[in-house]
UniProtKB/TrEMBL annotation:
Domain CBS: 8-67, 76-132
Organism of derivation: Maricaulis maris (strain MCS10) (Caulobacter maris)
Protein keywords: CBS domain
Annotated protein name in UniProt: Putative signal-transduction protein with CBS domains
Pfam families: CBS
InterPro entries: CBS_dom, CBS_dom_sf, CBSX3_CBS_dom, Diverse_CBS-Domain
Gene3D superfamilies recorded: CBS-domain
Repeat found in the keyword field: no
GTP-binding found in the keyword field: no
Origin: domain of life: Bacteria
Amino acid sequence: MIVDAILRSKGRDVITIREMATLEEAARLLDSHAIGALLVEDGAGRPIAVLSERDLVREMALHGAACLQRPVAQALTQAFVVAGRDIQLNALMVLMTERRVRHVPILEGEQLLGIISIGDVVKAKIADMEAETAALQAYIRS
């Protein structure tokens, strides 16, 4: 299965935030959309990073509640991993595991197509395994 199929089924909506927005704004967006990560854009609207709940927790642990007034840019980690729409699901799993990321923006050139989370990957793998199991059971019965 290629990642583009996942994007078609889950949708391509991505919630973004500018790098100079505050961490408080980021926390409010995460909460209001019930999501685990935001795509961070630079001043020109280009994707530059992913800000996750984990990043917010790290900032709170290091700097306390005062961190909520800091810009998103100060909380970003170095790991910004992107993939193309044609990447195979297994290759994406390896990439996410090796780079220790849970959210990967999918780009075509500079155009953002969507974002895939580890939860999306797990759901797709389960669906693949269920389809394979059903096909094998049908084959055995015939």
